[in-house]
Write a structure and sequence with these properties.
With 64 residues, the chain is mainly alpha-helical. It has two helices and no strands. The longest helix has 28 residues, at 36-63. The relative contact order is 0.12.
């Protein structure tokens, strides 16, 4: 359940980043207002969640 909530939060963050890009493109500004560090942060959080999920799966399989 907790991982599902975190995934939802990440999807919202990703949608916000995409919306910023599309708004900048619609204005003709390109990606001037877009901060790629936002995307990098999301990728790092995703990798951390995947690691936790894999560890959880390994621990669950060891208990069975």
């Amino acid at each position: 359940m907790e991982i599902g909530v975190k995934n939802d939060e990440h999807l919202i963050k990703l949608a916000t980043v995409i919306q910023r890009i599309e708004t900048a493109q619609a204005k003709g500004d390109g990606a001037g207002e877009f901060d790629f560090s936002d995307l990098q942060d999301l990728l790092e959080e995703q990798e951390a969640l995947e690691s936790k999920l894999e560890e959880s799966d390994v621990n669950t399989n060891d208990e069975v």
